[in-house]
Design goal:
Blueprint lengths: L5 E5 L3 H4 L18 E6 L2 H5 L1 H8 L6 E6 L2 H9 L5 E5 H9 L4 E8 L3 E5 L14 E3 L6 H12 L9 E3 L5 H9 L5 E5 L2 H8 L4 E5 H9 L6 E6 H6 L1 H20 L1 H10 L6 H7 L5 E5 H18 L16
Parallel strand pairs: 2-3, 2-4, 7-8
Antiparallel strand pairs: 1-3, 4-11, 5-11, 5-12, 6-9, 6-10
Helix pairs in contact: 6-9, 7-8, 8-13, 11-12, 12-13
């Protein structure tokens, strides 16, 4: 499918008044000077930010440009072009970008694990039940594949011998479509695609919460998504970026507290096509906004798993302390 960009030209100072608390109403604000560009991914990243996106989209003067993209590579392209002051990316791509010379700092983690094992075989209730099975996951070396392999190993299974990992559906969209059509019977998929699948194929159900399995293995949750800020923007506009971070945090709280209202906004802004899917996806989307200062050690442990699997996934080395702002 062709990727599309959904843009909203917005006024900055909505940030000062928007989303104060978790009341299920909506707010607006007034103007400030300057321009910032905020790039977010269509999916859980935008789901948590939807009240912020909605408030900004209703402003008249375009001093903040919010860009919603379908794929992480589109976001990284904007970083390479110097067109993103703030950006949400998978944590592994955030580390890779930093290690390859893009000076973006990790300022928060807005999404904590969205991976699940879904399928039609409800006899699968334990890891041992996967022996001899074929499990579909997106491209080898991507986050779902590496994390699933890691969890298999932690639970006594050899990913190369005890089961078959099938990569014929290379993207999360391809895999979700295959599961909805019954072409893939067992797969590692994320939200909100998982909720879309179960709406289309009633034979598919949740078999295993891989986020819970990660927490059990690591004694900590999965910091899957990075909120990055350009180092120069942090230096020039620290107060404004702090206001945006605070607004994102309040938006996330509101989404979790008011799922029906949030679902309506997700449909309005093209994040999801049906409110019923959004309502189901929200509690499974791992939406929890946490600042880097509190969780840098958790991020390091998470990235270490990928570094051990293949250092090149995160750019050949672990990010240094500067990455954590």
């Amino acid at each position: 499918m062709h990727s599309t960009f959904v843009t909203f030209l917005v006024a900055m100072t909505a940030v000062f008044f928007m989303i104060s608390g978790t009341s299920c109403g909506s707010r607006s604000g007034k103007d400030t000077e300057g321009n910032l560009t905020f790039v977010t991914l269509k999916g859980p990243s935008s789901m948590g930010m939807v009240r912020l996106i909605d408030s900004l989209s209703r402003e008249e003067k375009p001093t903040v440009h919010v860009v919603m993209v379908n794929e992480p590579l589109q976001a990284r392209k904007l970083m390479l072009e110097g067109k993103a002051d703030m950006v949400l990316l998978p944590m592994t791509m955030a580390a890779l970008s930093y290690n390859k010379g893009l000076d973006y700092r990790l300022v928060a983690v807005p999404v904590w694990g969205t991976l699940y094992l879904y399928g039609e075989d409800t006899t699968i209730t334990r890891w041992e039940d996967l022996k001899g099975k074929t499990v579909h996951t997106m491209a080898r070396g991507m986050t779902p594949d590496v994390l699933f392999r890691y969890l298999l190993s932690k639970n006594g299974l050899d990913p190369n011998k005890d089961l078959t990992l099938d990569y014929r559906f290379p993207s999360h969209i391809d895999l979700a479509s295959a599961m909805a059509l019954g072409k893939a019977k067992l797969g590692v998929i994320s939200e909100p695609q998982a909720s879309q699948v179960v709406q289309k194929n009633v034979a598919v159900s949740l078999l295993m919460d891989l986020n819970h399995e990660w927490t059990t293995a690591m004694h900590a949750p999965m910091p899957q998504t990075a909120f990055l800020a350009d180092a120069s923007a942090l230096q020039k506009h620290p107060e404004r970026i702090e206001e945006i971070l605070s607004a994102c945090e309040r938006s996330t709280l509101w989404v979790n507290s008011c799922p029906d209202s949030a679902a309506a906004l997700m449909v309005k802004h093209g994040i999801l096509d049906r409110a019923v899917v959004a309502v189901r996806a929200i509690p499974y989307a791992g939406l929890h906004f946490e600042r880097t200062a509190k969780i840098s050690a958790l991020v390091q442990d998470y990235l270490q798993v990928f570094y051990t699997f293949d250092p090149e996934i995160i750019g050949g080395k672990m990010p240094d302390e500067t990455f954590y702002k």
